[in-house]
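Please review this one:
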Amino acid sequence: MGWLVQIVNMMKGYFSHGEAFGLPKGTVRASVFLLLTGTVCLLAILGKAIPELLGVAWGSVVGFYYGQSTTKGNGPNPNGT
């Protein structure tokens, strides 16, 4: 049982108490993205219809996930516009 305490003590600094479930920042968002993308892909591969609500949810998550990562820059636009 002492080995378990050692492992927990080693991992204490890894988990952030200010984030969801104490996981690193972005983990929950990425997990939702991967789960929805996997579900949509599986339905497409199986030739099943993708429910409208799932398609809307997937599109929203994809738009938010990639849209947020492109707006993090503070400098000028590299395209010059």
Remarks:
- The two ends are 61 Å apart (CA to CA).
- The longest helix spans residues 27-46.
- The CA atoms of residues 40 and 54 lie 8 Å apart.
